[in-house]
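Our preliminary data section would be incomplete without showing what the modeling component actually yields. Below, a chain of 279 amino acids is followed by its predicted structure, encoded as C-alpha coordinates that our downstream tools consume directly.
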Amino acid sequence: MAKTILSDRRLQPRPPAERWQSALTEISPNKILIRGYPVDEMMGRLGFAEAVYLLLMGELPTPAIGRMLNAVLVSSLDHGVTPPSTLAARNVATSGAPLKDCVAAGILGFGPHHGGDIESCMRFLDGGLSLMRGGRKLQQAAEAIVDECVGRKEVPPGFGHRLHTRDPRAARLFQMALELELEGEHVRLIRVCERALDARQDHFGRPLPVNVDGAIAAISADLGFAYELGNAIFLISRLPGLIAHAHEERTRQAPMRQIDPKDHDYDGARQRRLPEGRK
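Predicted structure:
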Protein backbone atom coordinates (compact mmCIF):
# COMPACT_ATOMS: atom_id res chain seq x y z
CA MET A 1 0.00 0.00 0.00
CA ALA A 2 2.79 2.41 0.90
CA LYS A 3 4.42 1.87 -2.49
CA THR A 4 1.10 2.58 -4.24
CA ILE A 5 0.63 5.87 -2.36
CA LEU A 6 4.18 6.93 -3.17
CA SER A 7 3.61 6.10 -6.82
CA ASP A 8 0.38 8.14 -6.86
CA ARG A 9 2.19 11.16 -5.40
CA ARG A 10 4.81 10.99 -8.12
CA LEU A 11 2.12 11.03 -10.77
CA GLN A 12 0.66 14.29 -9.49
CA PRO A 13 1.63 17.31 -11.66
CA ARG A 14 4.32 19.53 -10.14
CA PRO A 15 3.65 23.25 -9.78
CA PRO A 16 5.58 25.37 -12.26
CA ALA A 17 8.98 26.40 -10.93
CA GLU A 18 9.39 30.08 -10.11
CA ARG A 19 11.49 31.92 -12.67
CA TRP A 20 14.65 33.36 -11.14
CA GLN A 21 16.01 36.79 -11.90
CA SER A 22 19.32 38.28 -13.06
CA ALA A 23 20.04 41.96 -13.67
CA LEU A 24 23.48 41.55 -15.26
CA THR A 25 23.30 40.67 -18.94
CA GLU A 26 20.40 40.31 -21.38
CA ILE A 27 20.93 37.99 -24.32
CA SER A 28 18.61 37.81 -27.31
CA PRO A 29 19.17 37.13 -31.02
CA ASN A 30 21.76 39.60 -32.37
CA LYS A 31 21.76 41.63 -29.14
CA ILE A 32 23.88 41.55 -25.96
CA LEU A 33 23.12 44.11 -23.25
CA ILE A 34 25.43 44.40 -20.25
CA ARG A 35 23.61 46.34 -17.52
CA GLY A 36 21.46 47.72 -20.34
CA TYR A 37 24.33 48.87 -22.59
CA PRO A 38 24.96 47.12 -25.95
CA VAL A 39 28.31 45.39 -25.67
CA ASP A 40 29.21 46.32 -29.27
CA GLU A 41 28.79 50.00 -28.35
CA MET A 42 30.94 49.52 -25.25
CA MET A 43 33.73 47.98 -27.32
CA GLY A 44 36.31 50.62 -28.19
CA ARG A 45 34.54 53.24 -26.08
CA LEU A 46 34.95 51.83 -22.57
CA GLY A 47 38.22 50.69 -21.08
CA PHE A 48 38.35 47.28 -19.41
CA ALA A 49 38.35 48.77 -15.90
CA GLU A 50 35.29 50.88 -16.72
CA ALA A 51 33.47 47.84 -18.08
CA VAL A 52 34.38 45.87 -14.95
CA TYR A 53 32.97 48.66 -12.78
CA LEU A 54 29.77 48.72 -14.83
CA LEU A 55 29.30 44.96 -14.50
CA LEU A 56 30.03 44.86 -10.75
CA MET A 57 28.32 48.09 -9.67
CA GLY A 58 25.52 48.47 -12.21
CA GLU A 59 26.31 51.96 -13.51
CA LEU A 60 29.00 53.59 -15.63
CA PRO A 61 31.87 55.05 -13.60
CA THR A 62 32.85 58.69 -13.78
CA PRO A 63 36.09 59.31 -15.73
CA ALA A 64 37.91 59.77 -12.41
CA ILE A 65 36.63 56.47 -11.00
CA GLY A 66 37.50 54.71 -14.26
CA ARG A 67 41.10 55.96 -14.06
CA MET A 68 41.32 55.02 -10.40
CA LEU A 69 40.03 51.49 -10.91
CA ASN A 70 42.33 51.05 -13.89
CA ALA A 71 45.29 51.96 -11.67
CA VAL A 72 44.10 49.50 -9.02
CA LEU A 73 43.91 46.68 -11.58
CA VAL A 74 47.40 47.47 -12.87
CA SER A 75 48.84 47.67 -9.34
CA SER A 76 48.49 43.93 -8.63
CA LEU A 77 49.03 42.60 -12.15
CA ASP A 78 52.02 40.52 -11.02
CA HIS A 79 54.54 40.27 -8.19
CA GLY A 80 57.20 37.87 -9.41
CA VAL A 81 57.55 34.13 -8.94
CA THR A 82 57.30 33.90 -5.15
CA PRO A 83 53.57 34.41 -4.31
CA PRO A 84 51.76 31.16 -3.41
CA SER A 85 49.27 31.57 -6.26
CA THR A 86 52.07 31.96 -8.81
CA LEU A 87 53.95 28.94 -7.49
CA ALA A 88 50.75 26.90 -7.59
CA ALA A 89 50.17 27.83 -11.24
CA ARG A 90 53.78 27.03 -12.17
CA ASN A 91 53.80 23.71 -10.29
CA VAL A 92 50.71 22.55 -12.16
CA ALA A 93 52.14 23.86 -15.44
CA THR A 94 55.29 21.79 -15.03
CA SER A 95 53.13 18.66 -15.08
CA GLY A 96 52.00 19.49 -18.62
CA ALA A 97 48.44 20.30 -17.55
CA PRO A 98 46.31 22.57 -19.78
CA LEU A 99 46.66 26.31 -19.26
CA LYS A 100 43.18 26.60 -17.74
CA ASP A 101 44.09 24.04 -15.05
CA CYS A 102 47.29 25.91 -14.21
CA VAL A 103 45.42 29.19 -13.82
CA ALA A 104 42.66 27.54 -11.79
CA ALA A 105 45.30 26.18 -9.40
CA GLY A 106 46.72 29.67 -9.06
CA ILE A 107 43.32 31.13 -8.21
CA LEU A 108 42.85 28.45 -5.55
CA GLY A 109 46.15 29.67 -4.07
CA PHE A 110 44.53 32.89 -2.85
CA GLY A 111 43.70 32.94 0.84
CA PRO A 112 43.45 35.16 3.93
CA HIS A 113 47.21 35.87 3.80
CA HIS A 114 47.45 36.30 0.04
CA GLY A 115 44.80 38.47 -1.58
CA GLY A 116 42.36 38.06 1.30
CA ASP A 117 43.69 41.00 3.29
CA ILE A 118 41.62 43.41 1.20
CA GLU A 119 38.30 42.28 2.65
CA SER A 120 39.81 42.03 6.14
CA CYS A 121 41.18 45.57 5.87
CA MET A 122 37.85 46.94 4.63
CA ARG A 123 36.18 45.46 7.70
CA PHE A 124 38.98 46.78 9.92
CA LEU A 125 38.48 50.32 8.60
CA ASP A 126 34.71 50.12 8.91
CA GLY A 127 35.24 49.28 12.59
CA GLY A 128 37.04 52.59 12.97
CA LEU A 129 34.35 54.48 11.07
CA SER A 130 31.73 52.98 13.41
CA LEU A 131 33.65 54.50 16.32
CA MET A 132 33.64 57.86 14.55
CA ARG A 133 29.89 57.68 14.04
CA GLY A 134 29.70 57.04 17.78
CA GLY A 135 31.47 60.32 18.49
CA ARG A 136 35.21 59.50 18.30
CA LYS A 137 37.53 61.82 16.41
CA LEU A 138 39.51 60.47 13.45
CA GLN A 139 42.75 60.18 15.43
CA GLN A 140 41.00 58.53 18.37
CA ALA A 141 39.26 55.98 16.17
CA ALA A 142 42.50 55.13 14.37
CA GLU A 143 44.40 54.66 17.62
CA ALA A 144 41.60 52.51 19.06
CA ILE A 145 41.49 50.00 16.22
CA VAL A 146 45.30 49.89 15.97
CA ASP A 147 45.66 49.36 19.72
CA GLU A 148 43.13 46.54 19.55
CA CYS A 149 45.41 44.73 17.08
CA VAL A 150 48.50 45.57 19.13
CA GLY A 151 46.81 44.07 22.19
CA ARG A 152 46.24 40.83 20.28
CA LYS A 153 49.81 41.00 18.92
CA GLU A 154 48.41 40.97 15.41
CA VAL A 155 49.52 43.11 12.49
CA PRO A 156 46.46 45.04 11.24
CA PRO A 157 45.30 43.80 7.83
CA GLY A 158 46.66 45.88 4.96
CA PHE A 159 49.92 46.85 6.67
CA GLY A 160 53.50 45.66 6.29
CA HIS A 161 55.14 43.64 3.54
CA ARG A 162 57.59 40.76 3.47
CA LEU A 163 59.78 42.61 0.94
CA HIS A 164 58.89 46.31 0.69
CA THR A 165 59.54 48.77 3.51
CA ARG A 166 57.60 51.28 1.43
CA ASP A 167 55.16 49.76 -1.05
CA PRO A 168 55.43 51.92 -4.20
CA ARG A 169 52.04 50.70 -5.41
CA ALA A 170 50.23 51.95 -2.30
CA ALA A 171 51.95 55.33 -2.51
CA ARG A 172 50.91 55.80 -6.13
CA LEU A 173 47.31 54.73 -5.50
CA PHE A 174 46.98 57.24 -2.65
CA GLN A 175 48.53 59.94 -4.81
CA MET A 176 46.00 59.26 -7.56
CA ALA A 177 43.07 59.18 -5.12
CA LEU A 178 44.10 62.66 -3.97
CA GLU A 179 44.65 64.00 -7.49
CA LEU A 180 41.32 62.61 -8.74
CA GLU A 181 39.47 63.92 -5.66
CA LEU A 182 38.42 60.40 -4.70
CA GLU A 183 40.09 60.38 -1.28
CA GLY A 184 37.27 59.50 1.10
CA GLU A 185 36.84 58.56 4.74
CA HIS A 186 38.41 55.11 4.37
CA VAL A 187 41.58 56.49 2.77
CA ARG A 188 41.86 59.25 5.37
CA LEU A 189 41.40 56.73 8.17
CA ILE A 190 44.00 54.28 6.89
CA ARG A 191 46.59 57.06 6.53
CA VAL A 192 46.04 58.05 10.17
CA CYS A 193 46.21 54.36 11.18
CA GLU A 194 49.56 54.16 9.41
CA ARG A 195 50.92 57.01 11.54
CA ALA A 196 49.45 55.48 14.70
CA LEU A 197 51.07 52.16 13.86
CA ASP A 198 54.40 53.84 13.17
CA ALA A 199 54.31 55.31 16.68
CA ARG A 200 53.87 51.76 18.03
CA GLN A 201 56.64 50.24 15.90
CA ASP A 202 58.43 48.83 18.96
CA HIS A 203 55.59 46.34 19.46
CA PHE A 204 56.38 44.64 16.14
CA GLY A 205 60.07 45.41 15.72
CA ARG A 206 59.71 46.64 12.16
CA PRO A 207 57.95 49.37 10.20
CA LEU A 208 54.47 48.48 8.98
CA PRO A 209 53.48 50.90 6.21
CA VAL A 210 50.26 50.50 4.26
CA ASN A 211 50.74 47.84 1.57
CA VAL A 212 48.96 47.54 -1.75
CA ASP A 213 46.17 45.42 -0.21
CA GLY A 214 45.48 48.16 2.33
CA ALA A 215 45.45 50.86 -0.35
CA ILE A 216 43.09 48.82 -2.55
CA ALA A 217 40.86 48.14 0.46
CA ALA A 218 40.55 51.80 1.43
CA ILE A 219 40.02 53.00 -2.14
CA SER A 220 37.57 50.21 -3.01
CA ALA A 221 35.55 51.00 0.11
CA ASP A 222 35.48 54.70 -0.78
CA LEU A 223 34.27 53.75 -4.27
CA GLY A 224 31.39 51.80 -2.73
CA PHE A 225 32.49 48.22 -3.36
CA ALA A 226 31.24 45.51 -1.00
CA TYR A 227 33.78 43.58 1.08
CA GLU A 228 33.76 40.52 -1.15
CA LEU A 229 34.24 42.60 -4.29
CA GLY A 230 37.45 44.03 -2.83
CA ASN A 231 38.96 40.55 -2.97
CA ALA A 232 37.44 40.03 -6.42
CA ILE A 233 39.24 43.12 -7.72
CA PHE A 234 42.55 41.59 -6.66
CA LEU A 235 41.62 38.33 -8.39
CA ILE A 236 40.76 40.16 -11.63
CA SER A 237 44.02 42.10 -11.39
CA ARG A 238 46.27 39.08 -10.82
CA LEU A 239 44.67 36.76 -13.41
CA PRO A 240 46.89 37.93 -16.33
CA GLY A 241 49.96 37.39 -14.15
CA LEU A 242 48.95 33.79 -13.45
CA ILE A 243 48.38 33.20 -17.16
CA ALA A 244 51.78 34.68 -18.04
CA HIS A 245 53.64 32.58 -15.45
CA ALA A 246 51.87 29.37 -16.43
CA HIS A 247 52.56 30.03 -20.11
CA GLU A 248 56.23 30.85 -19.45
CA GLU A 249 56.64 27.71 -17.35
CA ARG A 250 55.18 25.57 -20.12
CA THR A 251 57.30 27.17 -22.88
CA ARG A 252 60.65 27.93 -21.20
CA GLN A 253 61.19 25.23 -18.56
CA ALA A 254 61.69 21.48 -18.57
CA PRO A 255 58.66 19.46 -17.45
CA MET A 256 58.36 17.87 -14.03
CA ARG A 257 61.02 20.10 -12.43
CA GLN A 258 61.19 20.93 -8.73
CA ILE A 259 60.53 24.67 -8.44
CA ASP A 260 62.47 26.64 -5.84
CA PRO A 261 61.67 30.36 -6.15
CA LYS A 262 64.98 31.26 -4.47
CA ASP A 263 66.90 29.71 -7.37
CA HIS A 264 65.44 31.89 -10.10
CA ASP A 265 67.16 34.77 -11.92
CA TYR A 266 65.37 37.54 -13.79
CA ASP A 267 66.51 37.85 -17.42
CA GLY A 268 63.81 40.15 -18.82
CA ALA A 269 63.94 43.78 -19.92
CA ARG A 270 65.87 46.20 -17.74
CA GLN A 271 64.11 49.21 -16.23
CA ARG A 272 62.70 51.52 -18.88
CA ARG A 273 60.44 54.55 -19.14
CA LEU A 274 56.95 54.73 -20.57
CA PRO A 275 56.71 56.63 -23.89
CA GLU A 276 55.92 60.33 -23.75
CA GLY A 277 52.21 61.05 -23.70
CA ARG A 278 51.35 58.13 -21.40
CA LYS A 279 49.69 59.67 -18.34
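The first strand starts at residue 25 and ends at 28. The mean pLDDT is 93. Preliminary results of this kind motivate Aim 1 of the renewal.
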